[in-house]
Amino acid sequence: MIRISSQQIFNGGINRLQGINSNLVDTQQQISTGKKVNKPSDDPVAAARILKLDQELRQNDSYTRNATLADNRLKQEENALQSSVDIIQRVRELTVQAGSGSLSANDRQSIAAELKERLGQLANITNTQDASGEYIFSGFQGSTQAFAKNDEGNWVYQGDEGQRKLEIDEGVTVPISDHGKGIFVDVPRSVSVENRESDDGYISGLEVVDEDALRDASPSDAPRKSIYLAVDSNNKVIEVDEDGNPTTPPKEFGDAGEEIDVYGMKMTVNDAVDGDTFEIGINRKQSIFGTIEKLVDGLESGAKGSDRGNAEYDALIAESLTNLDNAQEKIILKQTELGGRLNAVESTTAFLEDSGLYTKEIRSQLQDVDYAEAISNLSFQSFVLQAAQQSFAQVSRLSLFDRL
């Protein structure tokens, strides 16, 4: 015979009631929080999985914020570049207008005045700041103004050549800035007469007619920056070195005063005498600011009138147009590059959004409570608890004295 003491009956009943009440409390907590798993002990495997999914969502949110920042920065740069193109186009129109032979000195002064205004507008655009106050074209030197005037009053670049990048997904980075030196300063310059050791001689009609021949004269492995020409005692145009000595082997291009071809460049050497030397600049670069500043100086100097003045003025207009076209082309190429980056950001943002929704769906399946099921369980558990309480109350009153 097994003997069960009253104490055992009471302990067993109380433990049973506590267990049923604990389940009831858990169900009530699930309904109040909307979560099936409120503590690891509820479902250790699901709790670990939910924790990992939460970490993935936080990382996803961080990447999404970076993608949004990258999108804003790139669109701001794109707008600035488009504004620059518009200004350069207007400057080009003014340059074409300045090339008209019917303009008076006052007309050229008026054009120069508008060019100065456009130059100031371009400087403002290149000094665009983002929402945090950093200059977007200054490279890593965001707190430094990208372009400023030097002591001579010319606009110069003050930033560095750094390029900022952001990680917009795991292993995926995108550049969000471009330094102004690469866009507005390192612009290919038209072939031009750089300087000359001549009081009266000058070069007119300088034009590149055979780019292949010019490239052959300046191989990529050893590019030349200048070609030096001189007039000898026989009135022949010859090639010399930087010190004025004839090259070896000697190179003769033709007679001074007649149109000659020099490495694919057509030109005429005028009013030159024995010993006059000219430097033709090739493979040079000039900032868009320098191009406009030089054009303004030429318009304000009023050098037209003499044959030499007219030739130099015509050369200035031709060089300026080429340089403006080169600057515009460089900016348009950068715009194309920005378009590719924006597409990458857009596609990554869409992927992050889809990935976040999928992760949230999985987490919901593991964590979110089924209210209909939970309420049904709560009702059943309340009924069981009530029945257990009534049963325990009846059992706890049993006594042998009740049978006497």
Walkthrough of the structure:
With 404 residues, this protein is α+β, with helices and mostly antiparallel strands. The protein has a domain at 192-284. It is 54% helix and 14% strand. It has helices at residues 6-33, 44-98, 105-126, 180-185, 211-217, 288-301, 307-367, 371-396, and strands spanning 147-149, 155-157, 165-169, 172-175, 192-197, 202-208, 226-231, 236-240, 252-255, 259-262, 265-270, 277-281. The strands form 4 sheets. A 5-stranded antiparallel beta sheet has the order 5-12-7-8-9, with no helix packed on it. A 3-stranded antiparallel beta sheet has the order 6-11-10. A hairpin with a 2-residue loop joins strand 3 and strand 4. The longest helix has 61 residues, at 307-367. The protein is elongated. The mean pLDDT is 86. Its main location: other. It is found in: Bacterial flagellum; Secreted. Pfam families: Flagellin_C, Flagellin_N. InterPro entries: Flagell_FlgL, Flagellin, Flagellin_C, Flagellin_N. Keywords: Bacterial flagellum, Cell projection, Cilium, Flagellum, Secreted.
